[in-house]
Write a structure and sequence with these properties.
49% of the residues lie in helices and 14% in strands. The protein is of the alpha/beta class. Strands 3-2-1-4-6-7-9 form a seven-stranded parallel β-sheet, with helices on both faces. A two-stranded parallel sheet has the order 5-8. The longest helix has 26 residues.
Length: 272
């Protein structure tokens, strides 16, 4: 992990889950960290876990949907550390509900956090990251940014958008001759609190949803997920798949193309 020693890394959504593990592992590797989250208590817990690292640590409560706050945060980080070498746009929320039951406001909230949060962070930090000799932008999409699933249209839409935005940015950096690497991460089911804190449409049992997610889907430990992401950053990977489920989704969509759209409805009819 010497690759990150002395590097300045900003992480959004670092109060829990993958963001917390990324912060902890980067602190152990000697990185200087600028951690942000919308929850001050959770952010403080992460900061405590990172306190033993040899790098500097700065925390700030920031809502990624507040563009002015994100822009100010980026300037503050660059001023405090003198540079920014990498940004990890990790903040995100989950929402479940059929299209008919999902309100316009529900869609707006999910897209504001999961997509616009990534755009806000990237636009705010990119000018600083471009001045680094080894800059990197890392955007967290999802396996649901590779394959759509029924009852997750808001989340799918946002995560597909993150994928398209990130892949476009990577090409722009190459065409422009910039040294910035860009990585899109597609986690499968990770054992975090994302399902417990998920929003849901009227008629969806949030507890049942979370129980099912944790029992049937969340197979990957966030510690392992963070390690895989950081290895991908070191390698300059364009895409990082986290978990066997994400790898299966990638293979299925590549192999079947749009024919994959019949799989989940068929499984639903069989009661799987």
């Amino acid at each position: 992990m010497g690759y990150f020693e002395g590097r300045v890394v900003a992480i959004t959504g670092s109060g829990a889950g993958i963001g917390r593990e990324l912060a902890r592992q980067l602190a152990q590797s000697g990185a200087h960290l600028a951690l942000s989250d919308s929850s001050e208590p959770q952010l403080s817990t992460t900061a405590d876990l990172c306190a033993g690292g040899s790098g500097d640590l700065y925390t700030s409560v920031v809502d990624v949907t507040d563009r002015a706050a994100v822009l100010a945060h980026a300037e503050d980080v660059a001023s405090r550390f003198g540079r920014v070498d990498a940004l990890i746009n990790n903040a995100g929320v989950l929402f479940a509900g059929d299209v008919l039951a999902t309100t316009f406001e529900d869609y707006e909230q999910v897209v504001d956090v999961d997509f616009w949060g990534v755009v806000n962070g990237t636009k705010a930090f990119l000018p600083h990251v471009m001045r680094s000799d080894r800059g990197h932008i890392v955007n967290i999409s999802s396996a649901f940014g590779l394959m759509a699933a029924p009852s997750y249209s808001a989340y799918n839409a946002a995560k597909f958008a993150v994928r398209g935005f990130t892949e476009s940015l990577r090409q722009e950096m190459v065409i422009g001759g910039h040294s910035v690497m860009v990585t899109c991460v597609h986690p499968g089911g990770i054992r975090t609190t994302i399902a417990r804190t998920a929003g849901h449409a009227v008629g969806v049992d949030g507890t049942e949803l979370a129980d099912s997610f944790e029992r049937r889907i969340a197979r990957t430990d966030p510690n392992a997920a963070a390690r895989k992401i950081l290895r991908g950053v070191q390698r300059g990977s364009a895409r990082v798949l986290i978990g066997a489920d994400a790898r299966v989704v990638d293979i299925v969509t590549r192999t079947l193309g749009s024919r994959y759209l019949s799989i989940l409805p068929a499984l639903n009819r069989l009661g799987a």
